[in-house]
UniProtKB/TrEMBL annotation:
<dbReference type="InterPro" id="IPR018228">
    <property type="entry name" value="DNase_TatD-rel_CS"/>
</dbReference>
<comment type="similarity">
    <text>Belongs to the metallo-dependent hydrolases superfamily. TatD-type hydrolase family.</text>
</comment>
<dbReference type="InterPro" id="IPR015991">
    <property type="entry name" value="TatD/YcfH-like"/>
</dbReference>
<feature type="binding site">
    <location>
        <position position="156"/>
    </location>
    <ligand>
        <name>a divalent metal cation 2</name>
    </ligand>
</feature>
<dbReference type="GO" id="GO:0004536">
    <property type="term" value="F:DNA nuclease activity"/>
</dbReference>
<keyword id="KW-0479">Metal-binding</keyword>
<dbReference type="Pfam" id="PF01026">
    <property type="entry name" value="TatD_DNase"/>
</dbReference>
<keyword id="KW-0378">Hydrolase</keyword>
<feature type="binding site">
    <location>
        <position position="9"/>
    </location>
    <ligand>
        <name>a divalent metal cation 1</name>
    </ligand>
</feature>
<feature type="binding site">
    <location>
        <position position="95"/>
    </location>
    <ligand>
        <name>a divalent metal cation 1</name>
    </ligand>
</feature>
<dbReference type="InterPro" id="IPR001130">
    <property type="entry name" value="TatD-like"/>
</dbReference>
<dbReference type="GO" id="GO:0046872">
    <property type="term" value="F:metal ion binding"/>
</dbReference>
<feature type="binding site">
    <location>
        <position position="206"/>
    </location>
    <ligand>
        <name>a divalent metal cation 1</name>
    </ligand>
</feature>
<feature type="binding site">
    <location>
        <position position="7"/>
    </location>
    <ligand>
        <name>a divalent metal cation 1</name>
    </ligand>
</feature>
<dbReference type="GO" id="GO:0005829">
    <property type="term" value="C:cytosol"/>
</dbReference>
<feature type="binding site">
    <location>
        <position position="131"/>
    </location>
    <ligand>
        <name>a divalent metal cation 2</name>
    </ligand>
</feature>
<protein>
    <submittedName>
        <fullName>Hydrolase, TatD family</fullName>
    </submittedName>
</protein>
Length: 259
């Protein structure tokens, strides 16, 4: 059974002490690919170092995370642009998006940064990986003008409503990322998922965050994508092997790696 973790931050310091063991547990769980989203200029080097050490297993993205957008965001974007100019270095532009949960101070700057990175995604023919927190309508407004373009990607860590899922599905080349939140006791995601075709979702962990049941309270890691798989299989009434196959193909397709 092949599993893909479409969103994992294994390059963060939380994994500094035991990364080889973390990777080994992921392999034992059946994980064949781990996709790593960038945060800002401070994380590029550690992310690339991990992806280089586990070449062919871990795959880097480049982008500016919305919570790193501030008054100096244009300088950060210049670094992203420079990184993008190296051919075939990155598999996606991410993690990008908008986050109005903590702070709305740089809302306009977040919109501008998102739009610019959408344009780069089209220029370089790369998928985008979108972070959305308390900002769905704002992101949708920035995304709307790209409706009839080849823009494609993933709405990562989706926790939205049935209506929001339906609006994402209007964009035929966008997928919905499901992680440990679906296993949480009070999560509405199982009900929302019943209206989303299996062909439109990918699995992820968002390690070290959002650890699924039964490991809640522990640091998340890529091996735990299997716990999310089990819950998603229950929701769809499908065998785990089937859900693993479909979601893995979905991920490889959006990242341009489906053979």
């Amino acid at each position: 059974m092949r599993l893909i973790d479409s969103h994992s931050h294994l390059f963060l310091e939380e994994f500094a002490e035991d990364l080889p063991q973390v990777m080994e547990r992921a392999r034992e769980a059946g994980v064949t690919h781990i996709f790593m989203p960038n945060i800002d200029s401070t994380t590029i080097e550690p992310m690339l170092r991990v992806c280089s050490a586990y070449k062919g297993y871990c795959f880097p993205m480049i982008g500016l995370h919305p919570t790193s957008v501030d008054a100096g965001y244009e300088k950060e974007l210049e670094i992203v642009a420079e990184e993008l100019s190296s051919p075939d270095k990155y598999v996606a532009i991410g993690e990008i998006g908008m986050d109005l949960y903590w702070d709305k101070t740089f809302r306009k700057e977040q919109e501008l940064a998102l739009d610019k990175q959408f344009r780069w995604a089209l220029e370089y023919d790369l998928p985008v990986v979108i972070h959305c927190r308390e900002a769905f309508d704002c992101i949708y407004k920035v995304l709307e003008p790209y409706r009839n373009t080849p823009l494609r990607g993933i709405f990562h860590s989706f926790t939205g409503t049935r209506e929001e899922a339906a609006r994402i599905m209007e964009f035929s080349d966008f997928l919905i990322g499901i992680n440990g939140v679906v296993t949480f006791k009070k999560s509405a995601l199982p009900e929302v998922l019943k209206n989303i075709p299996l062909e439109r979702i990918v699995l992820e962990t968002d390690s070290p965050y959002l650890t699924p049941v039964p490991n809640r309270g522990k640091r998340n890691e890529s091996a735990y994508v299997k716990d999310t798989l089990i819950k998603v299989s229950e929701v769809y009434g499908e065998l785990p092997e089937k859900v693993a196959q479909v979601t893995s193909e979905n991920a490889l397709k959006v990242f341009g790696m489906l053979k």
